[in-house]
Amino acid sequence: MPNERLRVAVRGAVQGVGFRPFVHRLAGELGLAGWVANDAGGAVLEVEGDADAVRRFLVRLPAELPPHSALTGLEPTFLAPSGLEGFEIHASLGGAKTATILPDIAACPDCLREMRDPRDRRYRYPFVNCAHCGPRYSIIEALPYDRAATTMKRWRMCAACLGEYENPGDRRFHAQPIACPDCGPRVELWNGDGAVLARGDEAVRAAGRALSQGRVLAVKGVGGFQLWADARDPAAVLALRGRKARRDKPFALMVRDREAARALCDLDAMEERLLASSEAPIVLLRRAADPRARVCDPVAPGNPRLGVMLPHAPLHHLLFEEFPHPVVATSGNLSEEPISTDERRALEDLRDVADLFLVHDRPIARAVDDSVAAVVEGREMLLRRARGYAPLPIPAREGGPRVLAVGGHLKNAVALALDRAVLVSQHIGDLSTENACEAFRRTISTLQDLYDFRPEAVVCDLHPDYVSTRYARSLGLPVVEVQHHHAHALSCLADNGLEPPALGVTWDGSGWGPDRTVWGGEFLRVAPDGFVRFAHLRAFSLPGGEAAVREPRRCALGLLYELGGREALDWEDLAPVAAFGAPERRTLGRMLERGLSSPRTTSAGRLFDAAASLAGLRQTATFEGQAALELECAATGAPAGAGYPFPLVEEGGVVIVDWEPAFRALISDVRAAAPVPVVAARFHAGLVGAVVAVARRAGEPRVALSGGCFQNRVLLSGAVRALRAAGFEALWHQRVPPNDGGLALGQAAAAALVLREAPCA
Ligand code: ZN
Ligand code: ZN
Ligand code: FE
């Protein structure tokens, strides 16, 4: 393995406790070069050297902290080696100009110890917290961060709490959410009518009993409600699926501790660090070959991975003392709506979903969903950036313009570009419901208020009909429009601390192209002053347009039509053809022939859907990307055979990646009854081959992989390894998601480049 450089932003009480000498010593032990410096929120450090040693450093750092230090956050980013030598301790990087709002931090070991100590005054108190842990972003109403500016303002501290709060030597000195059983919030267990069944400790015990009886529990957590059910009990999990109208999408799990996670999944040291971090995200882990604990099939049907998180609120820890088994812990919302935060609202929203409601009276100022992350090729990649991370900044170049980036339409998140940093909001969701749009507007206005931020420009997607675009245009500010895939590519570069030039391989479901067609399988040559569409997947038609997102068989028919015209729509031995009746096929054939409601697209996402459909995996989907996910699952661990051929053809100065030979080979494999995992693996390998072939043709040394398709680990790992083997520098996402949740960061980067050339008056 070549050398790697790792930057770590460390937040917490790490100044004046010997942290920098500790980092120096640890780096020395591992033979790493680098530096460490204090900054406003804690410390920043870089280490460089042997790739394995760098990872050991990251794992040991939080585990071996000097006494009296406490971490509230740790964000690692891998960077290209810069030839660091020796180790330096710098004084300080200078303070940030803006106050930083911390994210919500998982309960710390000291607080948990008190909660379990019968002699402690906070014994079994579910709102125990201190200056090193507890809620932050989800309770802040205004800055400066002070008790009166949080949702804790309604509770008057008792004398004992006030004593701790005012004592500079106490762990709770100025801990704004400080509370105890005498003066703080309380829990209650409600039935579906909102009648109180139990209070305090008895509510927790009764909730635990309800779980063991197969009931669905709505739990008010830190940033919103979760829905809990016994993950071993198929009846409970299927009831939750039925009531939430969530047929197949995998559920996340919460397990009581690391040991319980190890009993379900195989995890390496990096994954374990992430799982047990103070950010406490859901981590996608590989199921153990021979698990010592089991969850029932309906939790994540057919998926070789499980999304697992550890308890992060003290209340969760108490619940696991009553019910020690894995639980499904999924967002407390109705399919695509934002999560519920208020107990009265939840009673309405989740009336038909939950049997019982475990609530408390500490208000949640804003919905902050659980974050989702994975370790890919030895690096962390966030797939949903929310609790534990939002609204922390991503470092950016100094002197950039102040812009508001409004993101896209799906998986929306917004960003504020400040000097030297881009604040990325929590995941807001798909802007297809009124509630989500309201959350979008509210998130923007509160973030702007909190940071006293007045943007000089607003940046949005090129798509004219996105809610976010229309909002951007309504502000009366200069508007910068950024093409969707251009933003993806710049987001990936910014995420890796880089700027153009690069080749951006940006693959997703859809994004508006400047030619007013639907793009989605793009290779963009990105330069500081813009981009050129260097190559793309060959276009095909989607009969019924948007309907194809939920019907992979339509994508397949669109491709078959390209391969063999109307006749191909009668190849009844193929699953997508057989999945339609003859009259439907005639209608679809006419639509394709005349180009009626059959937009042309270069979408890689829809190409995956078509392959999954032809492989016989899935004809209709219950969530976007389901068919592609199943194809990825089928390919996971399958022997890597020869990839299907995707030759490059040049047409009018643009390179076209032609999928026709690949699909002909795929169809003949299917007709020869080749096993699905083989077909799936050959399809992935073929696309990886195409990425490398285009990269060679483009000749850019740096290749940035972005877009929702690169959540697919088989594709991402395959592309990273093949690009490296071919001598390219492969970049992928780390701190923001490759999906549209990362768009706002790319939009902010684009605006910085545009406005650097032509600043607003
Ligand atoms: Zn604590
Ligand atoms: Zn108190
Ligand atoms: Fe996208």
Written overview of the protein:
There is one protein chain. The longest helix has 23 residues, at 676-698. The chain has 761 residues and is α/β, with parallel strands linked by helices. Helix 21 (676-698) crosses helix 22. The two termini are 49 Å apart. The protein folds into four domains: 3-89, Alpha-Beta Plaits, CATH 3.30.70; 187-360, DHBP synthase, CATH 3.90.870; 395-490 and 738-761, Nucleotidyltransferase, domain 5; 537-698, Nucleotidyltransferase, domain 5. The mean pLDDT is 96. It contains 23 helices and 32 strands. One zinc ion is lined by residues 157-158, 160-161, 180, 182-183.
Keywords:
Alpha-Beta Plaits; 33% helix; 761 residues; 7-stranded mixed β-sheet; DHBP synthase; binds fe (iii) ion; binds zinc ion; Nucleotidyltransferase, domain 5
- Give helix % range: 25-40%
**CATH topology of the largest domain, anyone?**
DHBP synthase
Low-confidence stretches: none
Overall morphology: globular
- CATH secondary-structure class of the largest domain: Alpha Beta
Kindly, what is the distance between the CA atoms of the first and last residues, rounded to a whole number of angstroms?
49 Å
Number of helices: 23
CATH architecture of the largest domain: Alpha-Beta Complex
Radius of gyration based on Cα positions: 26 Å
Q: Write down the domain tally.
A: 4
Largest sheet: 12 strands, mixed
Each distinct ligand: zinc ion, fe (iii) ion
Instruction: Give the number of DSSP strands.
Output: 32
Strand content: 15-25%
